[in-house]
Every structure is written in structure tokens, then in C-alpha cells.
Specification:
2 domains, 11 helices, alpha/beta, about 45% helix, homodimer, four-stranded parallel beta sheet, Rossmann fold
């Protein structure tokens, strides 16, 4: 198969990574996309690194077997805990992840030499300090303030995006930054872009750059493919594979994507 | 091994079932208990029946291999979706579940012939209508009002038991019962007893009987063993097996049990 025509593989612990798939579709409308959501074992953010690595390897192999030309890790927890393992298994197939892409966007867009950056994410992402380490290796002087926000994923999946409970919960979490003048805040979980309007409203400074890593990774993927002359100009399909399909999957996926899913397949014996 | 001295097996999707283990330890302090929490695949409440059944069977086999004399399904989702499969696999080993036990308690304690009963639980438990069906087969005239409360488990795991967000969330969920005069409300998830004081405060009627299924199943287990002359008078150990052990497990387990865990073992290749 022609290398350009091979699909792009995207995976996440569940449906959160569909924000990445959506951004990739917007940036690269003629690429074929294969999305894998591990809905049988979601969420990853509360699990150990060892377990997350094991799951990530299984999904990477699944995508490689589908002949993907590039793998996008759309899950912050996997990006933080298992990127090296995915890269090793993927061999010559390039692997991008939301953390590196988010940090890259800050570097490109932030016109401040010694910035203060906030990071919100799942417990696992925050504990891994992956954003903190990546930012500190990029800037000689930087202050990084992290806050784990474990309730935001369930709130997003409940659909309480602009509910009073979401507002009160975010007010609580964003208190962590009340003494800071943030130059940027990273939405370090693929569910969080759904709360972007509320976060923007609640941040004390209106100047804070809000980094949506779904948009960042899509841009990095586009740059990479264009640079390698690897773009597909004739595709545009979207195939979705999940390890389990609860009744609400369709509804939630449509909330994330903003349109109906055309192809969903359940994969049970994929390991 | 003497039948009386064999341990009691208790399992749940995660740590929620420790409320059951605690109630069993209080009711039967000289029993040896083996607890299995499927922390690598928690939560079950958002997953399909087929997947939940598969997980339940794997754990049942694990407990049978440990020589348990009785299995307590401490997970409402498994009780609703997979009890028949567990019973079939367990053969002569008796299986109790939180749903049957909760309904049994209502039957014994509620002095109303045509009651109105509220049920709160996970999405899967509510969708299964397992409590509703069990109640309707017990009473010739009954009104059952169900409400799924998916945010309560993450709130409990975040430790926001009496936080303003928990109050606002419960106020929202309990609105489902505002036009009812509830004779009883079933806390249809093993995490929910942690919110019992708040639920009690927020319910419009102070006469509503609050059914904690952890207490119910412990009482049913005690009755059964006493009736069969199957009690152990010399044990009292508590062994905890989990499929994954995130850093917060110990902390959360201690919040549930009210004391330190003495024996925890991670089981990765148990299927």
C-alpha cells in the first residue's frame, strides 16, 4: 500500500481522544483515520504506570496491524507513562503525543522568556510531572503549577459542561492558581477542552493562553506529514474501534465530535 | 479443609465493596475474608453487560480457586448484570448479592403494604432495572423511582464527601424524588453509604428508611451461615487482592474501612 494512503492511528483510554480525532479531521480532512478507544478499561488516569503501559502496548500493536503510517497518542496518561514503550514498538512508524505537542505550542506562541504555566490533568498525568519536566527542559527559567482535577472527566461524561456543579468544581480546582499570574494554562486531558469556555471565564487573568493539546497535536501531525510529503489527498474516512460499547457511547461520541459516527466496531479479542 | 474454616469471598469492581467487607467483619468478626477489587478495570458501571459478565466470571473463578465457602457480590453492577452466571459457575458454593439483600431488608423492615421506594445507583444498575424488578416481584403494589447518579463514585474517590460540590450534586440528583413521599431509598452502589449523612439531611421526608446494602448483605450472610452451622469461630483474617494498585489505593481503602489494611496483594495474571 502506498505510504501516503495508509491511515493515521489515534488512540485514547476512551472517548476523550475524539477531541484529537476531530482536530485532526479539521487539519487534515483527506486523511483516513483509525481511532481506538479502550472503553472496556477506561479510565487510565487512576491506574498504575505498569498497567497503563501494558494497555498502551496492546493498542499500539492493534494499530500497527491495521497498517497505520503514524500513531497519535491522544491520551495524556499514556503520553506521560508509556510513550517510550509505544515508540519502541512502533519502530519506523512515527509517534506523536499530546504532551510534547502541547509544550511545543507554548514554545511557539508564548512571547515570554520566564513564564508561569499552569497544568491541569488527571491524577496520573499530574503525578508523572510529564508536562512539568518537558517545560523545564524547554525553558531555563519557568514556574510550573500543577493541579489534578479528577472530577472533570466524569462531569464531561455526565454532560454537565456548563452546569452549576461544573462551575463550583472548577472554581475549587482553579483556586490552585489564584496567587499566580499565569501566562498559559495547559488543558492536560483530552476531555478538558469541553470546559474551555468556563475555564476561560473563571481564570483571573484574561491574558492567559489556554493550550488545547488536541489542536496542538493535530497541527504537529500536519506539519510532520507535509514535511515528509506523506499527506493523503484522497481519503477522509473515519473508523472507530472500541473495546466495549456502552449504550451512551454513541451519544457521548457525538457530543465530542459534533456529528454522527459512521463506522464503529467493537473489538473484544484484540490482544 | 473443614468447611466452616474456609474463607468468605467478597468482590467488587474496585474499592467500593470494602464497605461490604467492613460490614461483614462487624457482623462476623471471626470469619476469614478474601476480598478481590478489580482496580485495573474499574469502574464497571459504564460498561456493557457482556463485558461485566466476563470480568465477574474471571473473579469468581479466582475466588473458587482460593477455596471460599461463600461468595458475596459486593458490586451492584455485577449483581444486576451477572449474578446468574456467577451462581452457575459457583456450583454448590452459595452466592449472595447486594441487590437481593437490599430488597430483603426492605421487606423485613418496611411496615407499609404499598410503598414508594427510591433507588439511586450507577447508570448500569439503574438501566438494568434490577432493583425495580426485584421490588415489583416482592410487592403486588409498589412505586419505584430510579435515578442514576454517576458523579457520586468519583466524588467519593476524590474524598469530597461533605464538600459543597457533593451537596450541590446530590441536591440535583435527589430532585428526582421531590414530588414523591419516599418510604425508603436504596443506596444502590457500595460507594454511596459514604454520603448517607448528606442524603439523610437532603431528603424531604425524615421518615424515609435509608437502605445501606452493605449492612443488608452482611446480615444475610450471617443468617445463612448460622442457619447452616457454617460459621468460623477461630478466624478473623482479611486478605485483599487487587488487579492494580494505584498510589491512592491504600488511602482510599483506609477511608472506606476506617483502619489500615494488613494484607494487600496485586494479582496481574489471574485469568
Amino acid at each position: 500500500m502506498n505510504n501516503q494512503k495508509r491511515p493515521i492511528g489515534i488512540f485514547d483510554s476512551g472517548i476523550g481522544g475524539l477531541t484529537v480525532a476531530k482536530a485532526v479531521k479539521e487539519a487534515l480532512p483527506h486523511e483516513d483515520i483509525i481511532y481506538f478507544g479502550d472503553t472496556a478499561r477506561v479510565p487510565y488516569g487512576i491506574k498504575s504506570e505498569e498497567t497503563v503501559r501494558m494497555y498502551a502496548m496492546e493498542i499500539t500493536q492493534f494499530l500497527l496491524d491495521k497498517g497505520v503510517k503514524m500513531i497519535l497518542i491522544a491520551c495524556n496518561t499514556v503520553s506521560a507513562s508509556a510513550k517510550e514503550d509505544v515508540v519502541r514498538l512502533a519502530g519506523e512508524v512515527p509517534v506523536l503525543d499530546v504532551i510534547s505537542s502541547g509544550v511545543q505550542t507554548i514554545k511557539e506562541e508564548l512571547r515570554v522568556s520566564e513564564p508561569t504555566v499552569g497544568v491541569i490533568g488527571t491524577l496520573a498525568t499530574v503525578r508523572s510531572e510529564a508536562y512539568k519536566k518537558a517545560l523545564e527542559s524547554t525553558y531555563s527559567q519557568i514556574q510550573v503549577v500543577q493541579e489534578a482535577c479528577p472530577l472533570l472527566v466524569p462531569l464531561a461524561e455526565e454532560g454537565w459542561i456548563d452546569h452549576a456543579v461544573a462551575r463550583l468544581t472548577l472554581e475549587h480546582y482553579l483556586q490552585a492558581f489564584q496567587d499566580q499570574s499565569l501566562d498559559a494554562i495547559i488543558l492536560g486531558c483530552t476531555h478538558y477542552p469541553l470546559f474551555k469556555p468556563l475555564i476561560s471565564e473563571l481564570l483571573s487573568s484574561k491574558e492567559t493562553l489556554i493550550i488545547d493539546s488536541a489542536v496542538s497535536i493535530a497541527r504537529t501531525a500536519k506539519d510532520y506529514l507535509e514535511h515528509q510529503d506523506g499527506c493523503n489527498n484522497q481519503g477522509g474516512s473515519f473508523s472507530c474501534y472500541v473495546s466495549d460499547r456502552p449504550q451512551r457511547f454513541q451519544e457521548l461520541a457525538e457530543r465530542f465530535l459534533g456529528h454522527e459516527l459512521s463506522h464503529i466496531e467493537i473489538v473484544r479479542d484484540w490482544t
